[in-house]
Amino acid sequence: MPTYEYRCSECNNAWDEVRSILSVEAKCPLCGHLCKPLISGGSTVIFRGGGFHSNDYAKDDVRRPPKPGEPNHKAHFTPPRRKKK
Question: What angle do CA 80, 83, 85 make, to 5 degrees?
């Protein structure tokens, strides 16, 4: 169910409420006035933490840093040279 933002036109109280799409209007918890939801600009997605890519899709050598004494293969990689014709 979606979360709606409300602001009462009588007492100026603001609150959020999770409601069914079929019953959008809500009563103000302070004065009891019947209020309609505010029109908002939409929602944004916030990714926190390591992220799904590093946790779920990346290879093991990409996910974890090298252990002490373990060579870092990516740092020492040199691409092969092309032969001259």
Answer: 160
